[in-house]
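Sample intake sheet
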Amino acid sequence: MGELELKVMNVLWAAGEPLRVRDVLERLTGDRRLAYTTVMTVLDHLHTKGWVSRTRDGRAYNYVPEESREEAGARLLRDVLDSSGDTESVLLHFARSVSDHESELLRRVLDDGSIPGEAGS
């Protein structure tokens, strides 16, 4: 995912409701003002890639993320592992980079399968 795609996804995740292109454009912050057509193109690419779904609302589309930020992060990690060619090395490097808190969370999940903050945990 590119930098602008991630910025657009962050707007959609924060919104919690379907947004039109103009809504996304108005909520994007940064050093430069983006063109409407740029945001429309980014949303179209995200739709093509399966990151967002859209429904027609009059002449415009409403966009929503296909999955939560957390689910998307997990999918990206899975993609890295699947494409690395050396899953063990990637996991070892990752394990060395986690904080004590993250390490404890991973241990809990591996030990009993519960994920803090999810239903049934």
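Comment: The helical segments are 3-15, 21-27, 36-48, 69-84, 87-97, 100-112. The chain is about 60% helix and 10% strand.
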